[in-house]
Amino acid sequence: MSERPARVGLFVTCLVDLFRPTVGFAAVKLLEEAGCTVEVPRAQTCCGQPAYNSGDRADAKAIAARVIAAFEPYDYVVAPSGSCAGMIREHYPTLLADDPAMQKRAQTLAARTYELVSFLTDVRGMSGVTARFDGTITYHDSCSGLRELGVKQQPRKLLATVAGLRLAELPGAEICCGFGGTFCIKYPAISDKIVSEKTADIAATGATTLLAGDLGCLLNMAGKLKREGRPIAVRHVAEVLAGMTDIAPIGESKAE
Amino acid sequence: MQHASSRRFKENARRALDDAQLQRALGHVKKNFVERRAAAAARLPEFEALRDRARDIKNHVLENLDVYLERFEAKVVANGGQVHWCADAEAARQTILRICRSVNAKLVTRGKTMIGEEIALNDFLEANAITPIETDLGEYIIQLRHEPPSHLIAPAIHVNKEQVAETFRAAHTDLDPKRPLTEPPALLAEARAKLRSRFLAADVGITGANFLVAETGSSIIVTNEGNGDLTQTLPKIHIVLASLEKVVPTLEDAATILRVLARSATGQEMSVYTTVSTGPRRADDLDGPEQYHVVLLDNGRSRMLGSEFREALRCIRCGACLNHCPIYHAVGGHAYGWVYSGPIGAVLTPSLIGVEEAGHLPNASTFCGRCESVCPMRIPLPKMMRHWREREFERHLSPPAARWALRLWAFAAKRPALYRLGASIAARLLKLRGGQSGRIASLPLAGGWTAHRDMPAPEGRSFQQLWAERSRP
Amino acid sequence: MSDTRGQILGAIRKSLRREAPSPQMQAEIQARLADPPRGPVPARGQLEPRARLELFVAMAKEAACTIVRVADVATVPSAVADYLARENLPAKLRVAPDPAVADLPWSTRPLLEVSTGRSDGSDEVSLTPALAGIAETGTLMLTSGPERPTTLNFLPETHIVMLTAEQVVGGMEEAWDRLRERYGRGVMPRTVNLVTGPSRSADIEQTLQMGAHGPRRLHIILVDGEATAEP
User: Fold this and answer.
1) Which residues pair with A138 in a beta bridge?
2) Residues of chain C with C-beta less than 8 angstroms from the C-beta of B218
3) Are residues C14 and C104 in the same domain?
């Protein structure tokens, strides 16, 4: 594991900030274990995906400029989300292509921006965690992380070192869960069909917990699992890796 | 132009979701085509390099499209064929009609081509007292059923064998009504016999072209059945109906792209029949057509070439994007409402029939990116769907409620203090609404979500709030 | 029609943001057409002759061809007669007028009814020569001509092709070279058929069936100078 000090700016993501701060704290814990100092720029709000994917380039650019300004002082930008990290890494440079100066700054930032788990393994050389988690889990590969950033083996590598944990691979792990940002609101019936197939696949693994690296996907799948009455707990992978699973799973409360 | 129902995508999709028979067929697409393509790609170590080369060949062609089309035309003419340049669907239809009338054609056999659908050729020929017969088995079935194709390469995928039998009984009225027609071999035998007599009787055969080869002035078609070959060999006239971007420079270039075509489409190493046709029969040939016509159709391609959608012109119509798309898996091809479905349909359709008509299609995507990851020509389909969303946004074509929600969100996202305040309030309110269960079953303004799934309740404080507290000494 | 031609070419140039192509561009394109560069040729298509032959046989079988190997062309009529008997087909076939097959010693199997010419749809079995076999995919290259009517490749239910070991090449690019050697650069026959197995369709409920419109059976007689009894 790399012992070089690294100043990480944590990109919390709007969904983690609003719905599940524990994921943010788990990220901090893991990053500190990996020898990083973590700061959370206060000026962050959103990566701009909602605007970008709705065709609102102007707002997307404005938001991107703010993100760049807030995070460029850091050695690395790390987000517990493949889609937000992907937005910064893969899309900011193209988004700002008509402003060469901005684009240069975007490219510089992009090169230092990572999804959390792949940052820990690929950049910090983390080969294992000390956490414990008893039970069989299954893992959904979120699309942006998988296809834009190549996040596939890294979470599995670290999960394999979690004491007591058994991984049952999810058939169709690489198939979309049907969230797609505004898609699930604009085309609810189609989104429902897609997520229903996903929850059926999840249930068929026999796992008692579902993990993934993107909270959007997790909220979607957890919401469906709960509506279907399936007794499968849903968490962000960071919670398990950081050993922070005291909190109730997504969509459940301590009372259950 | 072929009539479109893309405007009614949501209603079409609803019907498709409720169609149990269609859903069963789509289950097969999701499994079989995906597995076979993966196996074929895994078996060929050079597959990725071939995809890169295929993309580069097509980019080179598009950059020099005028030159290659001129070269192609010169070679066709030198070999005794004719080239007809058609600006739009109507011009193509009229040209084909004129050629048919020149030999008093009554019966026309058709090899599979999406361009035929694009220009609504069959209805037009029938209106002009010429009978067109689709000869690709799947196209024949849907022609009898008066349905449009539901998949790029397997047009009758939504029809089960009982429905095929029912269709044949209704159409083949000269056969014994008591004949057994329950099993696929009987259905195939019947179709083969029926179509054989049509092949032999046809005055004109119309095929598409997978490639137009500039080096030799040839057209190339790819089939598994051999119907395209019988269509183009037996009648007096062979008409090739193809759009501008089908041209490739050389036979070697065709060889490269052929290596990724069948593998991406069906997982086959090579389709059964890849046929290169050049001009009419030669002086002493014993068979073959007397005339060879190439109808070159623009219909929006030259305009696309100069737009941000140029890369979609690399498409070789393999269907891999459809086969891997979660939205296509859910609703099938008819829901898209026009000729082209799936991700390529979402990009091409607004270009060809207008974004006012087809606006839903590029929006009905999660941008999962699987299409781009399997496209043999490396077309960045999600990026182009996003471009369409940008065009719609500029033209205020999205629903007002969506625009307002987005405006509000963007307003807050540019004002961190306001945003933090809003987030902490929302976290608290939603947590309260979640109550004991930790989830919300119904939420105003989020009916699209809560109609089908619960909304997990937040922890109750935002991360920024908690972080600020933690950092305070 | 030249109006439309001009309009379309003009629209293309407008989209490409340039005028008519420069002489230099034209020359480059001409050079590319005259001496076509190859893309990546799979390793599988670059084997030594012996391995290439074996690969051809394996791939052709994978594509649902049947294939038998004979020592020399003189035994081809026997191989044909034996095949027809085995498959319970009538001892009757339509042969391409090409001397390579028409001039075989048919008298060695006098009970075989052999005629030459195109097919009108009434023939059950045909026999044609090939120009090449492509080992990479088990594909046959058949070219049309006064002595090789295309209808023989498609109308009969059973199509037999005679192929010699010398004709087997590694990949499609080499097959194009063979074609150019045979006809001359820039000269094509009316039809080149690249055939990989018998006709098939899965359009009825995704059930794969042979004999959709073209032949139900494709049988290859491979003359390779060594007899291997492989039914």
Assistant:
1) A210
2) 188
3) no
Which residues are CB-neighbours of B272 under 8 A, at least 6 positions away? Answer: B223, B224, B225, B226, C63, C195, C196, C197, C198, C199, C200, C214
C102 shares its domain with C8: no
The mean of the pLDDT values for chain A is: 96
Does the distance separating the beta carbons of B467 and A247 come in below 8 Å? no
* Residues C75, C79, C80, C81, CA torsion sign: positive
Contacts with B291 (C-beta within 8 Å, 6 or more apart), sequence order: B81, B82, B99, B236, B237, B238, B280
Question: Quick check: C231 pLDDT over 60?
Answer: no
Note whether A253 contacts B436, CB cutoff 8 Å. yes
Model pLDDT for residues C35-69, shown as the tens digit of each residue:
999 999 999 999 999 999 999 999 999 999 999 99
Amino acid code (one letter) for B157 = I
CATH number among 3.30.160, 1.10.287, 2.60.120, 3.40.50, domain A6-122: 3.40.50
Domain ranges of chain A: 6-122, 128-241
CATH number of C124's domain: 3.40.50.10420
Could you tell me where the DSSP H helices lie in B202-242? 227-233
| Same-domain check for residues C106 and C175 | yes
Q: Are residues C52 and C33 in the same domain?
A: no
- How far is B391 from B171, CA to CA, in rounded Å? 46
Domain with CATH 3.40.50.10420 in chain B: 45-302
Q: C61 and C7, same structural domain?
A: no
Contact A251 B364 (CB under 8 A): no
Output the pLDDT for position B367.
98
| B428–chain A nearest CA distance, Å | 9
Give which of B292, B307, B299 is closest to B347, Cα–Cα: B307
Overall number of domains in chain C: 2
Class of domain B45-302: alpha beta
Query: For residue C31, what are the domain limits?
Result: 1-37
Domains A6-122 and A128-241 share a fold: yes
DSSP element (H, E) containing B295: strand B291-297
Taking the CA of residue B393 and the nearest CA in chain A, the distance in Å comes to 6
- What is the tens place of the pLDDT at every residue in A58-83? 999 999 999 999 999 999 999 999 99
Q: What number is the average pLDDT over the span B132-147?
A: 95
- Do B and C touch, 3+ Cβ pairs within 8 Å? The answer is yes
Summarize pLDDT for A1-22 with one digit per residue, the tens.
656 689 999 999 999 999 999 9
For residue C218, give the DSSP letter.
E
Confidence check: pLDDT of C228 > 60: no
Claim to verify: residue C4 and residue C85 sit in the same structural domain: no
* C90 interfaces chain B, CB cutoff of 8 Å: no
Per-residue model confidence as pLDDT tens digits over C168-200: 999 999 999 999 999 998 899 999 999 999 999
Domain shared by C92 and C7, yes or no = no
Cβ contact C203:B164 at 8 Å: no
Q: To the nearest whole angstrom, how far is the Cα of B130 from the nearest Cα of chain C?
A: 23
Q: Same domain for C127 and C213? A: yes
Show residues of chain C in contact with B229, CB under 8 Å.
Answer: 150, 153-154, 191, 193, 214
* pLDDT at res. A1: 61
What digits encode the pLDDT tens for the residues C93-137? Answer: 999 999 999 999 999 999 999 999 999 999 999 999 999 999 999
CA distance A223 to A233: 11
The pLDDT value recorded for residue A192 is 98
For the structural domain made of A128-241, what CATH number should be given?
3.40.50.11810
Residue A24 touches partner B, C-beta closer than 8 Å: yes
User: What whole-number distance in Å separates Cα of residue A178 and Cα of residue A188?
Assistant: 9
Give per-residue pLDDT as tens, B25-81. 999 889 999 999 999 999 999 999 999 999 999 999 999 999 999 999 999 999 999
